[in-house]
Design a protein that fits this description.
globular, 8-stranded parallel beta sheet, alpha/beta, binds flavin mononucleotide, 4-stranded antiparallel beta sheet
Length: 314
Amino acid sequence: MKTSSPKDQSPGLSVDLSVRLGRLKLPNPILVASGTFGYAREMEPMIDLSRLGGILPKTVTWEPRAGNAPWRTVETPAGMLNSIGLDNDGVEAFLAHHLPYLANLGVPVIVSVAGSSHDEFVRLAERFNDVEIGGIELNISCPNVSSGVDFGIDCGLCEKLVADCRQAARWPLIAKLTPNVTSIADVAQAAEAGGADAISLVNTCQGMAIDWRKRRSMLGGLFGGLSGPAIKPIALRCVCQAAQATKIPIIGIGGIATVDDVMEFLVAGANAVQLGTVNFYNPGASIEVLDALPAALAEAGVASPAELVGTLVR
Ligand SMILES: Cc1cc2nc3c(=O)[nH]c(=O)nc-3n(C[C@H](O)[C@H](O)[C@H](O)COP(=O)(O)O)c2cc1C
């Protein structure tokens, strides 16, 4: 695995971009978020995939899923709503057709999984024990499938699920949390108590768009998940609260599009970040941010991302 690229270092700056998330070591803190980067193949013509800190392919489920009825996406001010409904070909197709390609990129691949029940989550976590991956992200936060967020809004269910997946899985486990809760701190603590190596947050914020002339929702799934710059303040707040409540590493997600956004998430308490919606309108964003990161860290007077994590002055 490549640990750094000469391009990751601006002349005259000695910044070490590598980050450690518990057992998971990443060459840099810039990852791409599940569902916004396909299975990476689609993005290969546009960016140098080998420079990413990590890739999270589209969430896989045990069985193939057709996803929700159209329309599935709507543009909103400073963001988008989606109601994809975890459209994917199932875990066996992923293992046969997508993982071999991803595993050859020389970048940590964190597989995202979603079960339709507790036992299915555990089976999915176990299914990757005989292949090489960087880790597993448990998507307990999808608002667009029935029971998609059950394990992300109930602390007891969350802790038990993470604990049983922990027992079953050989790889580092990341619990991906939903912002659609009263107390993100409580759910973050539950994931930590269950043995998560890290938490990632946030998934999309539940929302809606209406065509009043037709008196219909603009999404086939009625409601959808809001993402993009519109949700960045919510995501920052969630990361800050989760960081204050836990000791495990945090991956910040939500509206990140520029190096300034990345720096804000690090200060709030994130150890790494995932870029999501920006991949649709600026596929090169992750590499642009990565190129700009050493200078921004130097401007902050730190020699590594870790030095900036959680340095919010209160
Ligand atoms: C079209 C679309 C599909 C998504 N699919 C998934 C998914 O399959 N699994 C998942 O964990 N998150 C999924 N997400 C959520 C993103 O990974 C991310 O958590 C969220 O969009 C917030 O980040 P952003 O504002 O940078 O997009 C999806 C988001 C979008 C916009």
